[in-house]
Design a protein that fits this description.
Elements lengths: L30 H4 L18 E5 L2 E7 L6 E9 L2 E5 L6 H12 L6 E6 L5 H4 L2 H8 L3 E3 L1 H9 L9 H9 L7 H4 L1 H4 L12 E2 L13 E6 L6 E6 L4 E5 L21 H12 L7 E4 L8 H25 L2 E2 H8 L7 H19 L3 E5 L5 E5 L6
Parallel strand pairs: 4-5, 5-6, 6-7, 10-11
Antiparallel strand pairs: 1-2, 2-3, 3-4, 8-9, 9-10, 12-14, 13-14
Helix pairs in contact: 9-10, 10-12, 11-12
The chain binds zinc ion.
Length: 380
């Protein structure tokens, strides 16, 4: 399946389903408010040179950090914090990213005090160098508790697929000879240093420590367990992390570590809550360009998931399908490695959403593969 969005793919942020599919027919929950809203987003800034610091507004610096992936960058931000700076996200633990930090600390950040290191969530590009930055500066790590402990729950780089995870892939109908590809997800943990062994917790609506009273913590769910965003009403700025990206849709996946999860409802609820923020707010995302048009982007993403839900339901109407079969229907193009896992996880997220609503039912077949079928009578 072609991936027409203009930004390339990142294994951490990118949805495998970020395609413009057939127009939404309907879906009871999300389509009504979203369909047809395609207002253009406005991008006030061009991408800066990778590795350089750009002032977006007084007290807000933008650092475009290069990454050795298909998605070739992450946006990091530095916020004025008294006589120092708060670093928001770190980049992955790659030699390239470490070299950028080294050159900044030898150049424009020479002598600058780092007051804290905020990680919006645990994914490698966001928290990979937290340990180095905290150790170097003596600054605390600021994270939500679920993100901090969720990272600790992942086993790190492994050479074999753990039995619990193998059981997940089997129930999904994932071909056994592709299990090795599934295991590539653990290789991403080579890009995260072990986290510092203490952290300061971020809680929803709290003022961000070390800054003026206006930066507030907002929490989103669905992409990762307790994703922090930072919002300043006075500045009319939202640092959205991966919760709201302008050009790619965020990956919403069930994973082997929490196979019964239903993250799509949480994701859609988080999107809805963002509509309380004024539309004119400047959104500073982790990937892509800063933009205005928050409400339009929320509507686009709601519409995207409505289309995917319709396609998922249609697939399970034709015959009972395994998660893997649904993923092949949603992504007929060739996939490699971890993209398979993301497609599988995103397909299961949409199936679990439909199952929770009673739109599909599932049962294990004689070989232990779970098959989903559309219920003949749709709930009103
Ligand atoms: Zn992420």
């Amino acid at each position: 399946m072609p991936l027409p969005e203009i930004e390339p793919v990142d294994v951490f942020a990118r949805s495998a389903l970020a395609t413009e599919a057939t127009p939404a027919r309907h879906h009871q929950v999300v389509a009504a408010a979203a369909a047809g809203k395609r207002a253009a987003l406005v991008y006030p800034y061009r991408a800066p040179v990778a590795g350089s610091l750009t002032e977006i507004a007084p007290g807000i610096l933008w650092l475009r950090m290069p990454m050795p992936m298909v998605l070739n960058h992450i946006n990091l931000y530095l916020l004025a914090a008294g006589d120092g700076w708060l670093v928001v996200d770190t980049g992955p633990a790659t030699p390239e990213a470490m070299a950028v930090w080294k050159s900044l600390f030898a150049g424009p950040l020479a002598g600058a005090r780092i007051a804290g290191v905020v990680c919006t969530h645990f994914h490698a590009d966001h928290s990979g160098l937290a340990r180095m930055l905290c150790a170097r500066s003596g600054a605390p790590l600021l994270m939500t508790p679920m993100e901090y402990f969720w990272r600790l729950a992942w086993p790190g780089v492994l050479t074999e697929l753990p039995a619990e995870h193998a059981a997940y892939y089997h129930e999904c109908g994932f071909p056994a000879d592709m299990a090795l590809e599934a295991n590539e997800i653990f290789a991403t943990f080579a890009l995260i240093q072990p986290l510092p062994l203490s952290f300061r917790r971020l809680r929803e609506h709290d003022a961000l420590p070390h800054t003026d009273d206006d930066w507030r913590v907002l929490i989103g769910h669905g992409h990762s367990p307790e994703h922090a965003m930072l919002y300043s009403a006075a500045r009319s700025v939202l640092i959205s992390g991966d919760q709201l990206l302008p050009q790619i849709s965020t990956n919403i996946s069930v994973t082997a570590i929490d196979p019964a999860a239903e993250p799509l409802s949480e994701w859609l609820a988080s999107l809805e809550r963002l509509l309380a923020i004024p539309d004119a707010t400047l959104v500073l995302p982790a990937h892509g360009l800063p933009f205005r048009g928050l409400h339009a982007r929320v509507a686009q993403l709601q519409s995207h998931h409505a289309r995917v839900l319709n396609r998922t339901l249609a697939t399970c109407t034709e015959q009972p399908c395994s998660t893997y079969q649904v993923s092949k229907a949603l992504f007929p193009g060739p996939l490699k490695g971890i993209a398979h896992v993301l497609a599988l996880g995103e397909s299961l997220a949409h199936l679990h959403y439909l199952a929770r609503r009673g739109d599909v039912a599932s049962a294990l077949d004689e070989s232990g593969v779970r098959r989903f079928r559309a219920r003949r009578e749709q709930p009103a």
